[in-house]
Amino acid sequence: MMFAAFNVETNFPDLQRMWEYGELWLRKAGIGSVIILFIWGLWFILKAALRDGKWVPYGITGRLDSEGSGNNWRARVFWILLGLTGISFAVGLAYFFYQLFVTGDFFDPFDIVKKDNTPVTLITHAIINFFCGLALLTLSIEFLFDVFRFSPRRLVAIARFSIKEAIRRKVLWVFLILGVVILFASWFITTDKKADQWQQYINLVFYVVTTMVLVTTGILACFSLPTDIKQQTIFTVVTKPVQKLEIMLGRILGLVFLMTLILFIAASISLIYVARGVDPEVAKTIRARNVANGALRFREIDEQGKTIFAERGRSSIGRVWEYFQYLAGGTSQEAIWFFPNLPAEIARQDKVLVESTFDIFRTSKGGDKVEEGVPVQFYFVNSKKWNNKFEEYRNARDPKTGLPLTPDEKARKFGYYELPKPARVYDEGEPTRVSFPGSIMADSPPGAVLEVHINCRASSQYLGVAERNLYLLLQEGNWVWNFYKGMIGVWFFMILVVILGTVLSTYLNAPISLLVTILIIILGQPAILKYIDEQAQPDDPVNRPGGRVFESAYRLANKENMVTQLQDSTATRAVVALDSSTRYFFKLIHAALPDVDIYDRKLFVAEGFSIPMNEMIAAFLRLVMYSFPLLLLGYFLLSGREIAN
Amino acid sequence: MAENTTAKSQEIVVETRNLSKVYLDFWGRKKKQALRSLNLDIKKGEVFGLLGPNGSGKTTTIKLLLGLLFPSEGEGLVFGKPGTNVQKNERIGYLPEESYLYRFLTAEETLDFYGRLFNIPADVRRQRAAELIDKVGLARDKKRTLKEYSKGMRQRIGLAQALINDPDLVILDEPTSGLDPIGTKWMKNLILELRNQGKTILMCSHRLEDVQDVCDRIAILFDGELQELGSVDKLLEVEEMVQLTARGMKITDGLRRDLSEIIKKHGGEVDKLDHPTTTLEDLFLRIVEDSKARPGRRYLPPGERKAEHQKT
Questions:
Q1: B291: which of A44, A321, B151, B259 lies 20 to 30 Å off by Cα?
Q2: Model pLDDT for residues A379-392, shown as the tens digit of each residue
Q3: 3-state class of A448 per DSSP?
Q4: Rounded distance between C-alpha atoms, residue A193 and residue A196, angstroms
Q5: What is the DSSP secondary structure assignment for residue B18, as one 8-state letter?
Q6: Alpha helices in A231-372 (DSSP H)
Q7: Which residues of B touch A645 (CB under 8 A)?
Q8: What is the ipTM of this complex?
Q9: Minimal Cβ distance to B86: which of A231, A236, A241
Q10: Looking at residue A42, what is its pLDDT?
């Protein structure tokens, strides 16, 4: 099955949701900053009281007095910000307890969803964001002071130096292995099905390039600084007018530059290899489809005749894999894809192609013959034009000629179109392709959304649908550019590894930094992240019975099963409360881990889909958001470190 | 000790006030007290030596002044700024104990890299690097990577990197370590030359003769504590003894008798009367210079030397 629609389980970052991501990031960073400042405050008070008796803090690193005692305005700025953060923290805490004891609500600072748009709600959220921003600013003020003292020339000097170091220490010999792997790659490519050849080549080269680039990057990033410290060569650098931040950022820049060059060369060689390796017939079918994806919702009419909208389908066929959700055939259940912000030129197209793949779950072989497929009806609706007047739609005629209107004219007039007869979906076949007249979106008022409704007509069969498995085909893109876009995902991942490895190596020794980097990348895999995210969600006794660590342990110790109601006692209440509070620990862990799957776009390339540019920009912004706290951590670790100790 | 020809000012370049350093273990427990309440003032234009056996706190003091270590108590100021201040490094040149340089760089690349860290414009950087490479005698080896250098050559390029910014304060940690007598002599001359240019030099060494030859003042440390501080002349002076050096005579019984009488008259007594010896360093340098001047020169036993002398 060449270039079928594909199963994408990753929620790729969406540029339109970046504000939401940003707000959540600010909350996490702000709350994290408050925790760090609080711990630092306790340590500072203890240290001052027990050891040196000094009560004047010169910042988190204690280095803000380095201008000498007469010129410590930076320390004063830090003091003021710290005071304001303290006040805002007290106000936040008071609000938390007010909510808990007076209104009975549990105030969750990570909850960015606004329950309404009243001024009180909006102002409350704005104040929380401001407090979080203030805490983050306080924590990062020393870092920012140093950023403003940067010398680009020094930064470039250190970057150039780290490139030279990587080349002359011969770490890049690892890349010879890439050449060897490519030389013998054909051993690993089975050509049983010619149609799958492209996918196999793409998967192989992406796998090899990603692995080689990330392994080399990890080694270079984790070993560079610790080697410098171990061999004490860093002594002659830090005793020059170089800030430690410049040392860290210079190395990061140098490695990113070097590895970018290497990645580009490796990607280009891989592209030539793939283009020459695949069968000429297969090469002709390589595509990079630009598609529009919609948001999937479900609709059905319940027993009381009420219309219900839901984010998930209500029918279950008992499969553990929840990628597909199922519509029961012969019922009112509908899957609806919403396409806002479609390009205007769609309205000028005679036909807009819709491609889709579905999963069929059969409860019987009778009735519908398997080879005839399952009938599925498609409806296309312009949300701003369609008024649900089916009678009028079906009987519409031209007022001048009195002849029935063509489907195209009807679509233009009513904003509605339905297939003349249901499409057939086959169990193991090509994707289903249908089309609708683009005129459906013509003369639309602003904010019009295209809705694609589908309904399974075969009773006793279930139709599996997924958000990414139905899309509008807008145009064909350039597959070579698409290949490089896939490699840009690898590039983002490489930058993440450089930053992670370098930051960790400011404190840990080289092998430990490498191990921790690998561990963080493993924990950032979607399955593990999903598990941690589940643990961070509020209690849900229906879908996740038995509680988390403490409640489960209590149940095990008392031989109680997962679903029985716990006896109401002080002990059980304490256990349940303790158990509920662990979700904040998991929230912190979840916030600290990178979502590495958003950088893996080889499936797009392999399946012939153009990688959406807005998703790539959003992924880059997510990378920037993740990197800032990491750089801050590296700054504190390196600044607080006695290089010669 | 060489005479200081530059008028020393009263401007204090380095000062330490109760500077202390305690090394702690992972749990914050005291592991070693490396330095205890050190109080020092180093004035502009002087060559100051830190003396002491291994582990006495010399290198720790230097590292505290450079911000490589943080003080446990007290403060160490350079140009009035704490060790952790980065801007003060603009005026400092530092030669570490071992020549901690990147061995995969050539001499030229090394100086260029450190010059860039000082934000020195490219043309000035190139010119200064060439001058320093010449000065330290590595012009022929400037394209070789440092891993091919001998220890002495690395020490020379280390000194060149310490001078790339034309510093006001030069900190030298064991500057003659790894150098042969010629290199040692060259290094000592260079230190004196730097002092004559008005630069302040702080050096630490356990080669006492080096310190004696170049330092104006010294501090002697033992077990992290300051034991002695003062000018070399004063500290080395033996007040209860008098030394007289004369030329053009042999030691005879008559001379011994006459001198005893005069000395007795002034209330003293002759302790020792013999020919002075030169230092081994002077002898070595003289022989090397002689060998350079007379190619083919070789060692001859005393008998042959006499015959050779008569022949010529």
A1: B151
A2: 999 988 888 888 88
A3: coil
A4: 6
A5: E
A6: 235-238, 244-277, 280-284
A7: 23, 69
A8: 0.81
A9: A241
A10: 84
